[in-house]
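can u do me a favor
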């Protein structure tokens, strides 16, 4: 039998029992749609994370207190309840003198309740040097960032996030020059960040208070050390070279001669992206593997229906063999039917998955615009969906097709 004739026959047999064909491919549709949705969500999450990390600032390198964790990215020591005082302001000054470094900004952080009149909210606050705004590429939606004079003079000025500004003052009140209280210390608002999002160390920039580090250290935290240093490297230098200069300067400052006794760790954007990329990839594959269970269930359903179809068409098989059809012809016909069934289910599943992903994106961007979700529909998901549906058709259709091809024509013609 010609392949073209086999396809025509298979198509006619499938359309003859439309409802049964639709119900049979339903498992494949759900399975493929689930895989598509999860892969798309995983890719969207990865793109969102990458965008947020890159949004921390260009050529950014983070210096944290504490020994490195075998070269792997780890959370700040303060986030784990560990107090390490190894980073000091003199380290920032030393890094500023290195030619491959454009700027080095100091950072301390904490949590407290911010109050304006009768409104209050628990927030994260950061004490930073004035150049932090340029290092982080932070722009002002209202007002201005505080300056080096404010830091040196320990002026009580603050820059707040846009979401916090709306919570404390509402949309009708201009926050600039209003006075807020943080841990009973008063600050004059001089600027509001243009946008929120996730900042350094996972802090929500939409609900943050940024004050001079000189004030935060002495009056809010009562410390003299730093929780971190953010370094902006010169793009004309290689990142590894910049890391080596940072390492050299800090070892010299801390009197460290044994590299195994470093009391600081250095992380680049590439290190962070590599770790987060691996986490999201593993999570996506794990979820996709769970969703693939429905593909197996759908495949078993197709195998059952094809076995029933073989039984129902026993006399047809006998007649075809009587007029010259070979075992291979019969096997080919039933296998094509199985593949067409799963392939059609795969296409419908891809379209359904794309529809759900588009709907999720629409809802998130319409009602949760500050969430920053990005739409991602990877081509690899489409290719995988089509490939899996085709393979499922062959894998679960081969047994019924072989059963049909092996039937004895005389016994088949006698079948009632």
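np, heres the sequence
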């Amino acid at each position: 039998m010609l392949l073209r004739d086999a396809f025509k026959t298979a198509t006619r047999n499938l359309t003859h029992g439309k409802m049964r064909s639709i119900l049979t491919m339903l498992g494949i549709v759900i399975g493929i749609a689930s895989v598509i949705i999860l892969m798309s969500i995983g890719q969207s999450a990865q793109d969102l994370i990458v965008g947020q990390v890159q949004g921390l600032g260009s050529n950014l390198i983070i210096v944290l207190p504490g020994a490195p964790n075998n070269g792997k990215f780890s959370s700040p020591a303060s986030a784990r309840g560990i107090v390490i005082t190894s980073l000091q302001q003199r380290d920032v000054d030393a890094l500023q003198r290195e030619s491959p470094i454009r700027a080095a900004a100091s950072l301390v952080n904490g949590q407290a309740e911010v109050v304006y009149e009768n409104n209050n909210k628990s927030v994260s606050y950061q004490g930073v040097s004035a150049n932090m705004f340029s290092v982080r590429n932070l722009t002002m939606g209202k007002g201005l960032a505080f300056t080096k004079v404010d830091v040196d003079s320990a002026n009580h000025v603050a820059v707040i996030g846009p979401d916090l500004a709306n919570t404390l003052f509402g949309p009708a009140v201009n926050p600039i020059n209003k006075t807020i209280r943080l841990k009973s210390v008063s600050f004059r608002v001089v600027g509001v960040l243009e946008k929120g999002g996730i900042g350094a160390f996972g802090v929500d920039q939409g609900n943050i208070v940024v004050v001079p580090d000189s004030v935060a250290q002495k009056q809010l935290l009562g410390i003299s050390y730093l929780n971190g240093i953010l370094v902006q490297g010169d793009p004309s230098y290689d990142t590894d070279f910049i890391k080596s200069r940072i390492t050299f300067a800090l070892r010299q400052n801390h009197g460290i001669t044994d590299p195994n006794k470093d009391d600081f760790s250095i992380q680049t954007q590439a290190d962070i992206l590599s770790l987060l990329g691996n986490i999201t990839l593993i999570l996506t594959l794990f979820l996709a593997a769970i969703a693939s269970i429905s593909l197996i269930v759908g495949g078993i359903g197709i195998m059952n229906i094809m076995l029933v179809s073989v039984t129902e068409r026993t006399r047809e098989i006998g007649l075809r063999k009587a007029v010259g059809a070979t075992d291979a012809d019969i096997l080919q016909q039933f296998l094509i039917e199985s593949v067409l069934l799963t392939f059609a289910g795969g296409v419908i599943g891809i379209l359904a998955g794309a529809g759900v992903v588009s709907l999720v994106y629409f809802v998130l961007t319409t009602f949760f615009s500050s969430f920053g979700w990005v739409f991602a529909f990877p081509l690899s998901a489409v290719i995988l969906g089509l490939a899996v549906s085709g393979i499922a058709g062959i894998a679960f259709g081969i047994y019924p097709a072989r059963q049909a091809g092996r039937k004895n024509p005389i016994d088949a013609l006698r079948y009632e």
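The chain has two domains: 3-53+274-414, 85-262. hope that helps!!
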